[in-house]
Amino acid sequence: xKTAKMLGSARFVIAWGLCLLVVPARPAVSQAExxxxxxxxxxxxxxxLIETDRLEAAIPKRNPKHWMTGIEKGSFLDKATGFREVGDxxxxxxxxxxxxxxxxxxxxxxxxxxxxxxxxxxxxxxTDPGRRHYALMAHGSSxxxxxxxxxxxxxxxxxxxxxxxxxxxxxxxxxxxxFEYAAPGRKPGSRWTQLVVFPAGKRFFxxxxxxxxxxxxxxxxxxxxxxxxxxxxxxxxxxEIYLSYLSGPRGVHIPASEFSTPFPPDLxxxxxxxxxxxxxxxxxxxxxxxxxTGADGPWLAGLTLDPSVVYEAxxxxxxxxxxxxxxxxxxxxxxxxxxxxxxxxxxxxxxIEEMHALYDRYRGHTALxxxxxxxxxxx
Length: 379
Hints:
Layout: H1 2-10, E1 13-14, E2 29-31, E3 40-43, E4 47-51, E5 55-60, E6 77-78, E7 93-99, H2 129-139, E8 145-150, H3 153-156, E9 163-166, E10 170-178, E11 181-182, E12 191-199, E13 204-212, E14 217-225, E15 230-231, E16 238-243, E17 252-255, E18 270-272, E19 283-289, E20 296-304, E21 310-314, E22 316-318, E23 322-324, E24 326-334, E25 339-349, H4 352-362, E26 367-371, E27 374-378
Antiparallel strand pairs: 1-11, 2-3, 3-4, 4-5, 5-6, 7-8, 7-14, 8-11, 9-10, 10-12, 12-13, 13-25, 14-24, 15-23, 16-17, 16-19, 18-21, 19-20, 20-25, 21-24, 22-23, 26-27
């Protein structure tokens, strides 16, 4: 009875599983075409494991170690140095959102799984000081946003069966999922696709997030973590963060000491397309550090290849020893039937100069394609 009452008053729209991509089971272990043995793809019930000549990574299918989207937590290994990602995974996808407040209907948007996904601005009416403080620290207060479609994919996505694509000098994984419910006045069903390409001989992968929209919006965007969050205790896992798009053309180096206490995303180190000049390069990186010895390792960086697609980005310390590296793509008007996307490179680098040189080689692209004949970036 309680469930029926909730469903009757919620006024959300649901389309469970209508757009899930299901593909036939594949052999557990296979080699890339060409017979060179540079890559090993191992598929289990729970994840796809990619081991190349330079990297290791895992893409979850169900029961993830942390989040369901992107590269699984702790799995991204640089074979040259032995360092791994130190957050909760890489290129983790979150909401499909738009600018504006949901105060008028926040209490009515309750997902079938109990997740109050529409309530991005729920803290406007929150009376608990602790929860209100956390929400302000996590999201800021200067730029109101609300959900268009849910669920929060990283947290509530159902099991998937990604498609593995193999070529002579690359291996790729494509995951597709449809949003299952929507805010009042909207419908669910926008399709999200994430394509990850691992080239032979490289310490990086390429990734695209694409959304095929079923709703109109004056300012729609997709939220993710680029490259990913940073878990630390007093800066033990990293020595500095580099943001290429702040403090002029050389970017800004932020020492770990700046992240000793929590601060909201709109206090410092934030970027908004409407308040900042579009930079030449959009690079976010953290310099890894061995927590046991203090020795510096490689940089782990995320390169968003067309800076103009970035709507907003922040790098802030939340309560709980975590730095979030939120990035929102598109943030422009869309009509039902429109598609938008962003292309990124994520990987290990020995220097900032190396990041910029690679950026210049691939800059300006917003999409990524792959089939058995090869992979290609698209403008």
